[in-house]
Amino acid sequence: MKVSEFDFHLPEELIAQTPLPQRDASRLLVTERFGTELQDRQFRDIVEYLDADDVLVINQTRVIPARLFGVRADTGGPVEILLLRPYGGARWEVLVKPGKRARVGIRIEFGPKLACTVMDVTEIGSRLVDFEFNGNFNEILEELGETPLPPYIHEKLDDGERYQTVYSKEAGSVAAPTAGLHFTSELLNEIEERGTQIVPLTLHVGLGTFRPVQVEDIEEHRMHAEFFELSAESAEAINACKRRGGRVWAVGTTTVRTLETQARQQGSEYVVVPGSGWTDIFIYPGYEFKIVDALITNFHLPKSSLLMLVSAFAGLDTIKRAYAHAVENRYRFFSFGDAMLLL
User: Fold this and answer.
1) Which domains does the chain carry?
2) Where are the strands (E) in 36-113, listed by range?
3) 277 burial level (CB within 10 Å; 0-12, 13-18, 19+)
4) Contact residues for 222 (Cβ-Cβ < 8 A; gap 6+)
5) What is the percent of the chain where pLDDT is above 90?
6) What is the rounded end-to-end Cα distance, in angstroms, of the chain?
7) CA–CA distance, 202 with 273 (Å, rounded to integer)
8) In which band, very low, low, confident or very high, does the pLDDT at 215 lie, cut at 50, 70 and 90?
9) Which of 38, 163, 182, 336 has the highest count of CB atoms within 10 angstroms of its CB?
10) Within 10 A of 201 (CB to CB), how many other CB atoms are there?
11) Element (H, E) at 120
């Protein structure tokens, strides 16, 4: 398939710049997989579609203050870095601005508690750096760092927690799993009171997930690897749901990618196995879904791997129809925008 098949026109004014005052007041576009009917609802109506036998699987990652501002130790020139992913120990992959001057061996200082040295340059132009810090690294990040927002958001966010899910717990993402931003604690309580089990996992979201696919033949695209963790307890809850005939709901594409990464065939059925590690699974039309039965997701960027994933799940024609409806009816797009439910 060609990347041009996943392009669409989006008026710039439909890109949401700020979150709504109430998380669950977002609009919800509902459609069946490979279907034609579209329903315009409110996000809080999601409870009407959940059954007691279902499980709602959430990604409890938390966005870290991944943007740091420092100076070169040799010249005092300003440097900005963006943390991408940890490599173990004190080593991280980062983006550096200005990149041309971030040669191997350059030392960057962010204050008396934190510095790093550029150790290598990757194939995509990012850097591997080794940090030196005095104290707890995560606490230093909270003190010195800034939460990065996507480049299509131009307005300052007054409350940083609005770019976190209410259930965020495990620090490590550089971007939010945005489908989960619509949930409130009250809505989650209502879902549980109706009998649906809420099951957590973790996938730390990297910037590579959101980048447009640059190759024309999508099969040639390579995903940036992201770290995930699925506990034995969560895996068993999901497998028990499958055994009793319930549906596995994934909140967001990051949850889908974790569950499908951990899918294993047992006889004629599929189960998920617990584990942790790095996944670079790329899901595009033609993929056979093994675990996920329903998907809650936001509206995604043209030509992105996320748009390809939802097209694989619901059908490209269905997604094109839904996106055209969303544009015509002035839905809000991307991170702070409205949501879709694919059943």
Assistant:
1) 3-63+158-342 (3.40.1780.10), 67-144 (2.40.10.240)
2) 38-42, 55-59, 61-63, 67-72, 78-86, 91-97, 107-111
3) exposed
4) 280, 282
5) 87
6) 24
7) 14
8) confident
9) 182
10) 26
11) strand 114-121
